[in-house]
Design brief:
The longest helix is centred in the middle third of the chain and has 21 residues, at about 160-180. α2 (about 55-60) links the parallel β2 and β3. The protein has one domain (about 20-250): Rossmann fold. With about 260 residues, it is α/β, with parallel strands linked by helices. Helices cover about 40% and strands about 15% of the residues. The chain has a seven-stranded parallel beta sheet with strand order 3-2-1-4-5-6-7, with helices on both faces.
């Protein structure tokens, strides 16, 4: 397998021999764990962030992974990350993967669930981008940021709180891409299709098959496929992509 590498000087395709660091939030989930594992396989160092301590401890056993157990809403998030990054290779990438689905239909949606959706799905991504872009520019002369959203940002969902918070990630992505291009920092958005994780494994076989039938390939996405797509956005192979949306729903949105 040819290694995907971060941008090297002047956009050259020559492999970058220096280790670089990728931050992954939501690292303890099904997609997050596979991203961390795969990025290490490609030669990156990973700072894995999540609030699930037992799962993080298992990740920490892998070579090349540092972990930080913290709630994303914690106001000390950026400071805690900075302290760890001081001991790691130069920062190249940030993957804002963490998210929650909170709330109910508009008739029953509470203020608390609305606020929590934005506190977890949007605000930490904003704080992290704002908090690390200078380090990226200083240490790596650039970088790549990937925000992970959802197709419900475009087609809506039963929970307006979830859909609206994911739609906010689009505006954050395109605006930050405009702001940070001058520093050779790219910002892109990933729309994952329904993926086989712990959450989907709890679904009935009938439900999984019904959702898979909406895909053009008649199957669900795998965490490995998500990890490979994010690695592409982190790598030099996407060096002229910024403010872009990578649709991995496999036609799932067309069927709605």
């Amino acid at each position: 397998m040819q290694m995907l590498t971060p941008n090297s000087v002047n956009g050259s395709s020559k492999a970058n021999s220096q280790k670089q660091t990728i931050i992954v939030t939501g690292a303890a989930g099904g997609m997050g764990r596979e991203c961390c594992r795969y990025f290490c396989e490609l030669g990156w160092q990973v700072l894995a962030i999540d609030h699930n301590k037992p799962r993080l401890e298992r990740l920490a056993k892998l070579d090349g992974i540092e972990v930080l157990c913290i709630e994303l809403q914690d106001i000390g998030l950026v400071a805690a990350i900075d302290q760890i990054l001081d001991t790691m290779p130069p920062l190249w990438g940030l993957v804002n993967l963490a998210g929650i689905s909170k709330g109910d239909s508009i008739e029953n949606l509470s203020e608390a669930d609305w606020q929590m959706s934005f506190d977890v799905n949007v605000t930490p991504a904003y704080r992290l981008i704002k908090g690390v872009y200078e380090r990226m520019h200083k240490d790596s002369k650039g970088g790549s940021i990937i925000n992970v959203s959802s197709p419900v940002a475009y087609i809506g969902a039963r929970k307006p709180s979830y859909s609206a918070s994911k739609a906010a990630m689009h505006g954050l992505t395109t605006s930050c891409a405009r702001n940070l291009g001058q520093y050779n920092i790219r910002v892109n958005l990933l729309l994952p299709g329904t993926t086989i994780t712990e959450m989907t494994s709890d679904w009935s076989e009938e439900r999984q098959q019904a959702i898979a039938a909406e895909s053009l390939l008649k199957r669900l996405c795998t965490p490995q496929e998500i990890a490979e797509s994010i690695a592409f956005l982190l790598s030099e192979h996407s060096r002229y992509m910024s403010g872009s949306i990578l649709d991995m729903t496999c036609g799932g949105m067309w069927g709605h």
